[in-house]
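Q: Predict the assembly, please.
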Amino acid sequence: MTEDIQEMTWYYLRRSYFPQFMAGVMRLEWPERFILLQELYNHDESDPPWEIRSNDPMAEMMHWIGKKGEDAYFKFFIKGTNVNADGSFNIHPNISKCLGRFGIGTDELL
Amino acid sequence: MSKGNIPSEITDYVNRCVDGTEGTLPFAMRTVSLEAAYYSKVTKQYVTGSGIVVKQDANTLSRKAKDKVAIRFSISDGHHGIDCIAHDANLEYLPAGKGPHELTEIMRVVDDSMKNGSRISFSGKYHTVENKLIFVIDTLQGLKNENRSLMNEHQLKTFLSLCKKHRTTPLQLMLREDTLWGELYAKEYLKKAIMLFCLSPINKKEMLHIGIVASVGEGKDHMIEKVVQPLVKCGMASSGKLCTIPGLFGAMNGDDINSIELGLIPKHNNERIAISEFQTWNEEVFGELMNTMANGYFTMQKGQVDTRRDAFTNMLFLGNPPHYYDEDNHDKREMLAAFGDYTYQIVSRLTLIFTEMSLAGADAEKQIRNIMLMDAEGLFETGDTKESIIIWRNFFREYLNKVSGLDPRFGKLMPTLDSTFNEMKDRPQYQSAFLSRSQNDYRKYQQFINLVKSFAKLDGADTITVGHLMQARQIFEKSLATLTEEFPMRAMAAGVDTELLTVYEIAKADRIIYNSKQEIKKVTGMNKKQLDKLISMGALDAMSDGSYAVRLDFNWEGGGHND
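A: Predicted assembly structure:
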């Protein structure tokens, strides 16, 4: 039962929030995009921080995203998203910032 | 454009429901009409009709028959009016005399119609009484089931299962050009908003108010005439000074202070009204509307009598931006200044707000012209197209009525809904738009809940799904985006009036330096009080040589106190 609710919320986030997030983040210039995504990645402390991956972490990120495409953005999205057992969720402010042109609201799905 | 054809299985079923083959009654528009009764004055034929009682008086029948009672009342349908009488005299004096119980019941129905605006049906014929033509009532009863949907449970379930089978939803069908939107081209979100507006609120939590501010000539009235009114009952408020507070709410009867001659809003209780060109209204009208929009009722006082009338009425505000609005130089939220001094309060009560210069989108010119040409050729008024339009309208009228009575449940989605709202509420833009006066805005939360439930109703669902949540979130965000650009909402909340904003905008648009007080007053039309206020707020600088400089970077946030 609990898994069902969590799954449903993940489905909702993937269908409703993620496309907006991805569209929003791709509008940003790379230096700004890098900072925002790096913060998201590092928010999940189970993985080592992004910057220790290479000497040029921004180039590394560009390369990684270029290779993985949408999956890479979804990875960052997951890092900033927490779904609880009852189906409630929290998302990182950096994700909220990207949900639409003005930080709130979107035309993409309407 | 709508994708593909509607599956014939669905079309056939809809046709069968509408013509009455499937179910017990055909789906047809139920009208209130006095026409036959009105024109029977000459022939004095026995006729039936329906309408609303607008005036009544119970008194003795005549000087000759002082012991007999006559209930005299007037019935109207908005186009015609007739004067009626119901009485207890015997046949020699006047036909159709009633016994005491029957006459009391007629009096009760007449009274209820007058107080609550409920419709009645009647039959009878004209007679001459003391040199006057008067309609003598034979039978009269309230139309209690008039607002009940003709669609039964089986029809609803069959229709929903057909939609499921063909991988579509009732809402998707309702948004198509070959069902309800053939005569008007509009953006998808706007169509959804109008369909939400067409649901009937049963209580105050279900009321859904919408504001649409768009450029002139965008077809706002056309939308009401061609989409909303042929589909569902929708009152239309007058513009400007033609719309009076008694006209909107009602007025106490001078003879009988317990009764109210109902205005437009309570007449459309459990229905909806549209307000066209709302920017022409006097500001005090918005002031009177605020409680009704929030509570679903209003009270009236005269002498020592207090009366209360329900008004669970959806409201649609359609208007143009303020006259100084310039798309290149102003942000979209400035369009909302058309609500005047009550902008902040009215905006708080609107579930959805859209400020779009174009309702159809900049790239829709070709489609709009096509529709206009088809209309000019009368293609919507002839043959198969007309028949198809009527069938779908008749079907969805009963469908919308039926699903308005549903009460879909959130079940296990409650925490997800809560988180969705929290995520929006925690954004700084939301805080700036709605929390200027308080730490919490429960009204917006309630509106969001209602929005999600309404999307479920439109789909005929008993249980709310993630899909309904998604649709509600998208349209709510689209609406909130209107309020989160650089609009001086804080200034509005702090009580800066729109006239002050207007004169400042006119001054700014014309030039930066004004040589004298007279010059700035002449150009902008501002008065001395407004000039002094703008100077004290720092929007204008008064120079030592008597000239005035407009501060282009003046920020209205914080109520203008930002020197």
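Residues 51 and 78 of chain B are 8 Å apart (CA to CA). Residues 383-404 of chain B form the longest helix (22 residues).
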